[in-house]
Design goal:
Elements lengths: L6 H6 L5 E3 L8 H9 L4 E4 L5 H14 L4 E6 L5 H10 L4 E5 L4 H9 L3 E6 L2 H9 L4 E5 L5 E2 L7 H11 L4 E4 L5 H9 L4 E4 L1 H4 L8 H8 L6 E4 L6 E4 L2 H11 L4 H8 L3 H7 L23 H17 L6
Parallel strand pairs: 1-9, 2-3, 3-4, 4-5, 5-6, 6-8, 8-9
Antiparallel strand pairs: 7-11, 10-11
Length: 317
């Protein structure tokens, strides 16, 4: 593999500007350490973890890799203060925040010497993240799985818009699972990519095997962004999706949607493998995924495709 250096590899002290997203019920210490050991940046997804569980995953990750890794903190979840305390106590060096106001925690984290990255869905929010002191932003397009922005801006529009709006490095996310897609994102102004769905379909992901198999069977159009008036989330179409669709067609209120969602719906689907009644969060790019691979092999394959894309001329008629 050729040597590569840019602001993202320098910021995180990693070999390749490939970042594994901090997905709920999928990205524990096994996945994060495997990605970091392969030269990317692994991320522990704290959104589905109680504070004591997060602490255990951080400690296990530190034991499994000597290389940098991060923790993702979705700011809409409870116990954020406890999560932050654990992150500081365990001396995690990199934090990705999402789904909330970056002003809330960025200053404190930076005072502790922690690199902070915030996930945004618009150039407006990217500017606010930069103003809050974030070291980089993740520009996450409409194609992404899980909780998403309401703007419905696709990655091909969002990436150049965010890159033009801020001076800090931009990491592209949403609809990226191959090296050629990574190359396209870099041409548009990104300096790294964050991938979620591709790493859900990995051996080390903690999500249920039935969910992983469902992901690699997905076709175009098998996901949709739902519950925009509650918490926008892209999910696979299943029986639960149909229930949400019918409720929204009938003009369900936020309270009614909250009741329908209930507790533990995402855990039921992605972690416990209930493909009918669970919430199956995944991105549009699942339609391109055809195999479940070791995370290290995924990193290697993406980087090789990226380098091949640089070296091969554009096809012309």
């Amino acid at each position: 593999m050729k040597e590569f250096s840019n602001r993202i590899t320098q910021l995180f002290k990693i070999k390749y500007p490939i970042i594994q997203a901090g997905m709920i019920w999928a990205s524990g210490w096994k996945l994060a350490s495997a990605v970091s050991n392969a030269g990317g940046l692994g991320i522990i997804g704290s959104g589905s973890m109680y504070p004591d569980v997060l602490e255990e995953h951080i400690r296990r990750c530190k034991a499994a890799t000597q290389l940098p890794f991060a923790v993702n903190v979705p700011l809409l979840y409870p116990d954020i203060d406890k999560h932050i305390d654990i992150i500081i106590k365990e001396e995690v060096k990199i934090v990705f925040t999402s789904a909330g106001n970056p002003k809330t925690w960025t200053g404190m984290l930076k005072e502790k010497g922690i690199t902070v990255v915030h996930v945004v869905s618009s150039s407006k929010f990217a500017g606010k993240a930069e103003a809050a002191g974030c070291d980089a932003v993740v520009a996450e397009g409409f194609e992404a799985g899980g909780h998403n922005g309401r703007e419905e801006t696709t990655s091909f529009v969002l990436i150049p818009a965010v890159a033009a709006a801020v001076k800090i490095p931009v990491i592209a996310a949403g609809g990226i699972a191959t090296g050629r897609q990574m190359l396209a994102a870099m041409v548009l102004g990104a300096e790294g990519v964050q991938m979620g769905s591709r790493f859900v379909a990995s051996e080390e992901a903690s999500s249920h095997s039935r969910f992983k198999e469902e992901v690699i069977k997905a076709n175009e159009g098998d996901t949709q962004l739902m519950m925009k008036q509650l918490k926008p989330v892209r999910m696979m179409k299943n029986d639960f999706y149909q229930q949400v669709l019918e409720a929204e067609k009938k003009g369900a209120t936020v309270e009614e949607l909250t009741k329908l969602l209930g507790r533990g719906r995402a855990k039921l689907g992605m972690f416990e493998g209930n493909l009918s009644e669970g919430e199956l969060e995944i991105g549009q790019v699942s339609a391109l995924l055809k195999d479940i691979l070791p995370a290290g092999e995924i990193v290697k394959k993406i980087w090789q495709e990226f380098m091949n894309g640089i070296e091969q001329p554009v096809k012309m008629n």
